[in-house]
Amino acid sequence: MITKELIKDVTINILRRAETTLPKDVKEALVRAYECEENEIAKVQLKAMLENIKLAEKMQRPLCQDTGIPLFYVTLGLGLGGESRKVNVNLNDIESGIREGVKKATETIPLRPNVVNAITREGGEPNIGDRIPYINYKIADIDFDGLEIIAFPKGGGSENVSAFAMLSPKPEKESEKEIKKFILDAVLNAAGKPCPPTIIGVGIGGSADMAMSLAKAALLRPVHMRHKDARVARMEEELLETVNNTGIGPMGLGGKTTALDVHIETADTHITSLPVAINFQCWAARKASARLYSSGEVEYL
Ligand code: SF4
Questions:
Q1: Measured from the CB, is residue 197 less than 6 Å from ligand 1?
Q2: Residues 88-129: pLDDT tens digits?
Q3: CA of 277 to the centre of ligand 1 (A)
Q4: At what angle do helices 91-108 and 4-20 cross, to 10 degrees?
Q5: Res. 80: pLDDT tops 80
Q6: How far is residue 191's CA from residue 193's CA, in Å, rounded to a whole number?
Q7: 250 lines ligand 1 (CB under 6 A)
Q8: Which of 66, 199, 253, 287 to mutate to test the pocket of ligand 1 (most atoms within 8 A of CB)?
Q9: 157-281 is classed CATH 3.40.50
Q10: pTM score, two decimals?
Q11: 32: pLDDT strictly greater than 80
Protein backbone atom coordinates (compact mmCIF):
# COMPACT_ATOMS: atom_id res chain seq x y z
CA MET A 1 0.00 0.00 0.00
CA ILE A 2 1.23 3.50 -0.82
CA THR A 3 0.91 5.54 2.37
CA LYS A 4 1.66 9.17 3.16
CA GLU A 5 4.64 8.02 5.27
CA LEU A 6 6.04 6.03 2.34
CA ILE A 7 5.66 9.02 0.01
CA LYS A 8 7.37 11.24 2.60
CA ASP A 9 10.34 8.84 2.95
CA VAL A 10 10.71 8.45 -0.80
CA THR A 11 10.58 12.25 -1.23
CA ILE A 12 13.44 12.68 1.26
CA ASN A 13 15.48 9.97 -0.47
CA ILE A 14 15.05 11.27 -4.01
CA LEU A 15 15.66 14.87 -2.95
CA ARG A 16 18.88 13.80 -1.23
CA ARG A 17 19.94 11.89 -4.32
CA ALA A 18 19.05 14.79 -6.66
CA GLU A 19 20.90 17.35 -4.52
CA THR A 20 24.09 15.31 -4.10
CA THR A 21 24.42 13.05 -7.16
CA LEU A 22 24.07 14.19 -10.75
CA PRO A 23 22.45 11.80 -13.25
CA LYS A 24 24.96 9.66 -15.20
CA ASP A 25 24.10 11.21 -18.59
CA VAL A 26 24.87 14.74 -17.28
CA LYS A 27 28.16 13.66 -15.66
CA GLU A 28 29.25 11.90 -18.86
CA ALA A 29 28.34 14.96 -20.95
CA LEU A 30 30.43 17.20 -18.66
CA VAL A 31 33.40 14.81 -18.89
CA ARG A 32 33.11 14.80 -22.71
CA ALA A 33 32.94 18.60 -22.69
CA TYR A 34 36.11 18.76 -20.57
CA GLU A 35 37.93 16.41 -22.96
CA CYS A 36 36.84 18.39 -26.04
CA GLU A 37 37.44 21.94 -24.78
CA GLU A 38 40.64 23.61 -25.98
CA ASN A 39 40.10 26.92 -24.18
CA GLU A 40 42.16 26.86 -20.94
CA ILE A 41 39.65 28.87 -18.86
CA ALA A 42 36.81 26.64 -20.03
CA LYS A 43 38.83 23.58 -19.03
CA VAL A 44 39.47 25.03 -15.56
CA GLN A 45 35.74 25.72 -15.10
CA LEU A 46 34.72 22.23 -16.21
CA LYS A 47 37.39 20.62 -14.04
CA ALA A 48 36.07 22.54 -11.01
CA MET A 49 32.54 21.31 -11.79
CA LEU A 50 33.73 17.70 -12.08
CA GLU A 51 35.62 17.96 -8.77
CA ASN A 52 32.58 19.57 -7.16
CA ILE A 53 30.41 16.68 -8.41
CA LYS A 54 32.82 14.09 -6.97
CA LEU A 55 33.00 15.82 -3.58
CA ALA A 56 29.24 16.33 -3.30
CA GLU A 57 28.67 12.65 -4.04
CA LYS A 58 31.35 11.49 -1.62
CA MET A 59 30.33 13.79 1.24
CA GLN A 60 26.59 13.58 0.47
CA ARG A 61 26.39 17.36 0.46
CA PRO A 62 24.44 19.56 -2.02
CA LEU A 63 26.14 20.22 -5.36
CA CYS A 64 25.38 23.94 -5.14
CA GLN A 65 24.55 26.48 -2.42
CA ASP A 66 21.34 27.21 -4.35
CA THR A 67 19.50 23.99 -3.58
CA GLY A 68 16.60 25.15 -5.76
CA ILE A 69 12.86 25.53 -5.53
CA PRO A 70 11.18 22.16 -4.93
CA LEU A 71 9.42 20.98 -8.11
CA PHE A 72 8.04 17.50 -8.61
CA TYR A 73 6.55 15.48 -11.46
CA VAL A 74 4.13 12.78 -10.39
CA THR A 75 2.97 10.18 -12.91
CA LEU A 76 -0.11 8.26 -11.92
CA GLY A 77 -0.24 4.70 -13.16
CA LEU A 78 -3.23 4.04 -10.99
CA GLY A 79 -5.02 0.88 -12.02
CA LEU A 80 -5.12 1.75 -15.71
CA GLY A 81 -6.74 -1.38 -17.11
CA GLY A 82 -6.38 -4.97 -15.94
CA GLU A 83 -8.67 -6.52 -13.37
CA SER A 84 -5.95 -7.27 -10.82
CA ARG A 85 -5.09 -3.59 -10.48
CA LYS A 86 -6.00 -2.22 -7.10
CA VAL A 87 -3.90 0.73 -6.08
CA ASN A 88 -4.65 1.97 -2.64
CA VAL A 89 -3.51 5.59 -2.40
CA ASN A 90 -5.34 8.67 -1.24
CA LEU A 91 -4.49 11.56 -3.58
CA ASN A 92 -4.29 13.97 -0.61
CA ASP A 93 -1.52 11.73 0.75
CA ILE A 94 0.59 12.48 -2.33
CA GLU A 95 0.43 16.24 -1.65
CA SER A 96 0.98 16.03 2.08
CA GLY A 97 3.60 13.24 1.82
CA ILE A 98 5.65 15.38 -0.59
CA ARG A 99 5.24 18.53 1.55
CA GLU A 100 6.35 16.72 4.69
CA GLY A 101 9.21 15.09 2.80
CA VAL A 102 10.47 18.49 1.60
CA LYS A 103 10.25 19.86 5.13
CA LYS A 104 12.25 16.99 6.59
CA ALA A 105 14.77 17.01 3.70
CA THR A 106 15.34 20.74 4.26
CA GLU A 107 16.37 20.04 7.86
CA THR A 108 18.37 16.88 7.29
CA ILE A 109 20.25 17.20 3.95
CA PRO A 110 20.22 20.25 4.65
CA LEU A 111 18.72 22.52 1.97
CA ARG A 112 18.83 26.31 1.82
CA PRO A 113 15.41 27.83 2.63
CA ASN A 114 14.72 29.35 -0.80
CA VAL A 115 10.97 29.94 -0.75
CA VAL A 116 9.50 33.38 -0.02
CA ASN A 117 6.18 35.14 -0.55
CA ALA A 118 6.26 36.49 -4.13
CA ILE A 119 5.07 39.99 -3.12
CA THR A 120 6.32 40.60 0.44
CA ARG A 121 9.53 38.56 -0.10
CA GLU A 122 9.12 37.14 3.41
CA GLY A 123 9.84 33.50 4.12
CA GLY A 124 7.53 31.14 5.95
CA GLU A 125 8.24 27.50 6.69
CA PRO A 126 11.55 26.63 4.99
CA ASN A 127 10.88 25.53 1.38
CA ILE A 128 7.15 25.12 2.04
CA GLY A 129 4.68 27.75 0.93
CA ASP A 130 1.63 28.67 -1.07
CA ARG A 131 1.50 26.11 -3.95
CA ILE A 132 5.12 25.16 -3.20
CA PRO A 133 6.35 22.42 -3.52
CA TYR A 134 4.85 22.58 -7.00
CA ILE A 135 3.64 19.22 -8.28
CA ASN A 136 2.93 18.49 -11.94
CA TYR A 137 0.62 15.51 -12.42
CA LYS A 138 0.20 13.33 -15.45
CA ILE A 139 -1.32 9.96 -16.27
CA ALA A 140 1.19 7.29 -17.29
CA ASP A 141 1.37 6.32 -20.94
CA ILE A 142 2.55 2.88 -19.85
CA ASP A 143 0.45 0.73 -17.58
CA PHE A 144 1.94 0.16 -14.15
CA ASP A 145 0.50 -0.47 -10.76
CA GLY A 146 1.58 2.55 -8.73
CA LEU A 147 3.02 6.02 -9.15
CA GLU A 148 6.31 7.60 -10.11
CA ILE A 149 7.78 10.70 -8.46
CA ILE A 150 10.55 12.83 -9.96
CA ALA A 151 12.26 15.37 -7.71
CA PHE A 152 13.43 18.30 -9.83
CA PRO A 153 14.89 21.04 -7.59
CA LYS A 154 15.42 24.05 -9.85
CA GLY A 155 18.04 26.74 -9.31
CA GLY A 156 17.08 30.42 -9.46
CA GLY A 157 19.97 31.49 -11.72
CA SER A 158 18.85 29.29 -14.57
CA GLU A 159 15.14 29.89 -13.97
CA ASN A 160 15.54 33.67 -14.02
CA VAL A 161 16.55 33.78 -17.69
CA SER A 162 13.50 31.88 -18.94
CA ALA A 163 11.83 33.59 -21.90
CA PHE A 164 8.56 33.39 -23.73
CA ALA A 165 7.18 34.88 -26.95
CA MET A 166 4.05 34.73 -29.02
CA LEU A 167 5.58 34.73 -32.50
CA SER A 168 3.58 35.38 -35.66
CA PRO A 169 2.76 32.15 -37.45
CA LYS A 170 4.32 32.02 -40.94
CA PRO A 171 4.99 29.30 -43.54
CA GLU A 172 7.13 26.45 -42.14
CA LYS A 173 10.62 27.60 -43.16
CA GLU A 174 10.07 31.18 -41.96
CA SER A 175 8.52 30.02 -38.67
CA GLU A 176 11.53 27.79 -38.03
CA LYS A 177 13.86 30.71 -38.71
CA GLU A 178 11.96 32.94 -36.26
CA ILE A 179 11.92 30.26 -33.57
CA LYS A 180 15.68 29.75 -33.90
CA LYS A 181 16.28 33.51 -33.75
CA PHE A 182 14.19 33.79 -30.57
CA ILE A 183 16.14 30.93 -28.94
CA LEU A 184 19.51 32.34 -29.96
CA ASP A 185 18.59 35.84 -28.69
CA ALA A 186 17.51 34.32 -25.35
CA VAL A 187 20.80 32.41 -25.06
CA LEU A 188 22.86 35.53 -25.87
CA ASN A 189 20.83 37.56 -23.41
CA ALA A 190 21.28 34.92 -20.69
CA ALA A 191 25.05 34.62 -21.35
CA GLY A 192 26.73 33.28 -18.16
CA LYS A 193 23.74 33.85 -15.84
CA PRO A 194 22.26 30.33 -16.01
CA CYS A 195 25.65 28.78 -15.05
CA PRO A 196 26.51 27.10 -18.37
CA PRO A 197 27.01 24.56 -19.79
CA THR A 198 23.23 24.39 -19.75
CA ILE A 199 20.61 22.05 -21.02
CA ILE A 200 18.16 24.15 -23.00
CA GLY A 201 14.48 23.20 -22.92
CA VAL A 202 12.26 24.61 -25.66
CA GLY A 203 8.46 24.38 -25.82
CA ILE A 204 6.74 25.12 -29.13
CA GLY A 205 2.98 25.25 -29.56
CA GLY A 206 -0.08 24.71 -27.39
CA SER A 207 -1.11 27.81 -25.41
CA ALA A 208 1.17 30.24 -23.54
CA ASP A 209 1.22 28.16 -20.32
CA MET A 210 1.59 24.90 -22.24
CA ALA A 211 4.65 26.17 -24.13
CA MET A 212 6.46 26.96 -20.85
CA SER A 213 5.43 23.62 -19.30
CA LEU A 214 6.74 21.83 -22.38
CA ALA A 215 10.03 23.75 -22.18
CA LYS A 216 10.48 22.69 -18.57
CA ALA A 217 9.45 19.07 -19.17
CA ALA A 218 11.97 18.96 -22.06
CA LEU A 219 14.72 19.28 -19.42
CA LEU A 220 13.78 15.88 -18.00
CA ARG A 221 14.88 14.05 -21.15
CA PRO A 222 18.36 12.47 -20.92
CA VAL A 223 21.22 14.35 -22.58
CA HIS A 224 21.66 13.44 -26.26
CA MET A 225 18.30 11.68 -26.50
CA ARG A 226 16.71 13.16 -29.62
CA HIS A 227 13.03 13.96 -30.21
CA LYS A 228 11.18 11.13 -31.96
CA ASP A 229 10.08 13.41 -34.83
CA ALA A 230 13.03 13.69 -37.26
CA ARG A 231 12.23 17.34 -38.12
CA VAL A 232 12.30 18.35 -34.46
CA ALA A 233 15.43 16.25 -33.85
CA ARG A 234 17.16 18.10 -36.70
CA MET A 235 16.20 21.46 -35.13
CA GLU A 236 17.64 20.29 -31.81
CA GLU A 237 20.96 19.39 -33.48
CA GLU A 238 21.14 22.65 -35.41
CA LEU A 239 20.30 24.78 -32.38
CA LEU A 240 22.89 22.97 -30.27
CA GLU A 241 25.57 23.72 -32.84
CA THR A 242 24.51 27.39 -33.12
CA VAL A 243 24.42 27.85 -29.34
CA ASN A 244 27.87 26.30 -28.95
CA ASN A 245 29.23 28.60 -31.66
CA THR A 246 28.35 31.67 -29.55
CA GLY A 247 31.56 31.25 -27.54
CA ILE A 248 29.76 31.95 -24.23
CA GLY A 249 31.29 28.79 -22.77
CA PRO A 250 31.33 27.29 -19.26
CA MET A 251 30.16 29.87 -16.65
CA GLY A 252 30.11 32.47 -19.46
CA LEU A 253 33.91 32.76 -19.47
CA GLY A 254 34.45 31.61 -23.06
CA GLY A 255 34.74 28.25 -24.77
CA LYS A 256 32.81 25.98 -27.05
CA THR A 257 30.55 24.27 -24.49
CA THR A 258 27.68 26.68 -23.84
CA ALA A 259 25.08 23.91 -23.82
CA LEU A 260 25.27 20.17 -23.28
CA ASP A 261 22.08 19.72 -25.25
CA VAL A 262 18.94 21.33 -26.65
CA HIS A 263 15.63 19.51 -26.15
CA ILE A 264 12.43 20.59 -27.87
CA GLU A 265 8.91 19.47 -27.01
CA THR A 266 5.96 20.41 -29.20
CA ALA A 267 2.18 20.53 -29.17
CA ASP A 268 -0.34 21.48 -31.83
CA THR A 269 -1.56 25.04 -31.49
CA HIS A 270 -4.22 27.57 -32.53
CA ILE A 271 -4.26 28.54 -36.21
CA THR A 272 -3.36 32.17 -35.30
CA SER A 273 -0.69 31.37 -32.67
CA LEU A 274 2.95 30.35 -32.41
CA PRO A 275 3.91 30.28 -28.70
CA VAL A 276 7.57 29.55 -27.98
CA ALA A 277 9.19 29.22 -24.55
CA ILE A 278 12.73 28.57 -23.38
CA ASN A 279 13.75 27.23 -19.98
CA PHE A 280 17.38 26.69 -18.98
CA GLN A 281 18.89 24.03 -16.76
CA CYS A 282 22.32 24.84 -15.28
CA TRP A 283 25.29 22.43 -15.19
CA ALA A 284 23.94 21.22 -11.81
CA ALA A 285 21.12 19.47 -13.69
CA ARG A 286 19.59 17.78 -10.66
CA LYS A 287 16.85 15.21 -10.78
CA ALA A 288 16.09 11.85 -9.21
CA SER A 289 13.08 9.58 -9.30
CA ALA A 290 11.44 6.54 -7.81
CA ARG A 291 8.50 4.31 -8.61
CA LEU A 292 6.18 3.28 -5.79
CA TYR A 293 4.14 0.12 -6.35
CA SER A 294 0.79 -0.62 -4.73
CA SER A 295 2.46 -3.49 -2.85
CA GLY A 296 4.54 -0.88 -0.98
CA GLU A 297 7.70 -1.79 -2.90
CA VAL A 298 9.89 1.13 -4.04
CA GLU A 299 12.16 1.12 -7.08
CA TYR A 300 14.73 3.93 -7.23
CA LEU A 301 15.28 4.76 -10.90
S1 SF4 B 1 21.89 28.25 -11.59
FE2 SF4 B 1 22.41 26.16 -10.89
S3 SF4 B 1 24.65 26.09 -10.63
FE4 SF4 B 1 24.00 28.26 -10.78
S5 SF4 B 1 23.78 28.90 -8.64
FE6 SF4 B 1 21.74 28.22 -9.34
S7 SF4 B 1 21.60 26.05 -8.84
FE8 SF4 B 1 23.75 26.65 -8.65
A1: no
A2: 677 889 999 999 999 999 999 999 999 999 999 999 999 999
A3: 20
A4: 40
A5: no
A6: 6
A7: no
A8: 66
A9: no
A10: 0.94
A11: yes
